[in-house]
Amino acid sequence: MNIKQDIIQRASHVTYIVIVLAACVIGRLVYVQYFQTFKGKFWRDRVAAAIIQRDTIRAMRGNIYASDGSLLATSLPTYVVGLDPTVAKPDYFAKKVDSLGLLLSRIFRDRSATDYTDLVRDARARKRRYVLLNRRRVTFQERQMMIKWPFFRSSAKVAARGGVLRPHYERYHPFGNMAKRTIGDLDAKTGRGLIGLEASFQQQLAGKNAVGLVEILSGGIRKPVNDGPDMKPESGMDLYTTIDVNFQDMAETALRSALEKYNAAKGCVIVMEVATGEIRAMANLTRKDDGYVENFNHALAGRTDPGSTFKLATMMALMEEKAISLNQMVATGGGSMTYNGLGIHDAKRGGAGTITARQVFEKSSNVGTHLLMRSYFYKRPDLYCQYLRRFRLTQPTGIHMKGEATPVVRNPDMKGWSKVSLTSMSYGYEMQITPLQMLTFYNAVANDGKWVRPMIVKQIKKAEDVVEEFKPYVAPEPICSRETARKAKELLRGVVKQGTARHIDNPYYAIAGKTGTAQKIINGRYKVGKYYTSFIGYFPADNPKYSCITVVDSPQGDNIDLLYAGAVAAPVFREVADRIVAYDIRMHAPIRPGSQQPRPADGLLAGYSDDLHTISATLNLKSEPSTEGWVEATPAGRWKSRPTRPDRIPDVRGLTLRDALFLLENRGLRVAVEGHGKVKDQSLEPGTQLVANTPITLTLN
Fold this sequence. Notes:
Helix content is 32%, strand content 24%.
């Protein structure tokens, strides 16, 4: 063997030895890290237990309230329960540890009292500075009990002896999914608002988090090193919205019913107060699987061709220029024509023939609208676009809420403008506008031309102190003259009286509005039978209080004629309006003092005296019960007491079903119901001996 080979062989041996030593070191490290114990505990846990770092304790997020003070969103605290067993003095610890174990076993019900006592004693023996007593977080009510326990009890003179209750806040919506997309939601990891009001007012709602030192213990448990001022977070401010929970429920119920009836893809309803712009309801539903959910704010961000509802802007521009008379005749012929290669068609088969300009709007004639536009604006496209800007249809409304889409309304300077763009725009195509933006325009017409910005938040409060207050914003310049606004109101009322929405007219209050049926674009082409239907209007028409838009997108059915807005979206508007008029007593003339309401010819009148007192005071009625409890009316129109012994079958005749169920079911009776209205008859004779679980049938009329 030569010298070179000898050197190579020795070097190889050294390399092998180094590799073996490195493997031994690595193996030892792995063993120490994951397998070796010291006093019964893995080293990795002992190392983790010694880590101290800065941590953030989230502040309690502010509440979101409805217009009547009802909670729409709030943060409910839950608490992690821990203990530093080294804090208490030996005599106190020995005296109280058994009691603590018993109390812990009663509240958590997963271990015996002895197990909890042994857990705490073992932690003290090992000088552990913190032990997690249970992974389940306790509620606020449970916390109130626990702060009276040994080790957790404190006073002005004596601090808690090691007990730690660290809060965590979870967002809760008392009304479930109502207005969920409007209220918004939080990011589960960061706690920041993701959408809706939660995101729009994140800074105000979030409050000020606390930052301090925590000790990272086994299993990722975080124990505060101290409870100094820096570890006390500052709660967020509260949001007071304009949402009325009753209006919101009416809107969502009517919308859901229509979407289910037509198996529609999505829809929305917005209800706004005319004078102030305050939004009382904003419902958004989208089909998902077999139901409808609020996962997108169509009202705020759902841009689309508005269709015939846009004809109001066209008519108003013509009237502002005094280019038309509402009584002038327009020859619409057979309801179909071609202009520069663009086919223009009316929904009514066979057309309407020669009609007035007023009827062009009421019957929603595309051909008639085109002819009126051609007579004036086709040579002045810039002037028409100026009016759209004046009507505030080319800019967002500026509502204090993130996510509002910017409208896309063409003008001659934009790319894509063609020789038929003005024609399409005149009856609501070649543009993208949201429902909220269209409603705000109609609201201005109802408001005699005064444009009001929509608002959904009225106040931001810190406890009882108002930090910021939002006032209604009215644009300094009206969108049109009072004369044009008056004529526009006539046109909208005519649509409901004798036009495309005449079937929602009623003798109790007047509705004014406009239907809109826009064909949807499928694979780049407008498709017959695929519609975006809407109705925008206000009520009462003679003294507008509320404006409203209802949208039902992509309704389905065998008869295309029954998929237009007049048959689909307008009835939703009527249902919402009916319920609001019935609910809002401010819309009704007050009853004169002393006036007596007629009583039904048949059937008893009965009820609970407190309820009748409230009704009489609210409606200013003269007749009020003078007795307490359950009462019934005499033939003379007075009230007398109705006995309701707990051991006898009560007399529920004349009561509402709700009151009757309260009396009967609380006595253990099984109730069946026939008919609707108030209780006319009951199968068991009043006053007979009561036997629990006995069936009883109520006949309503």
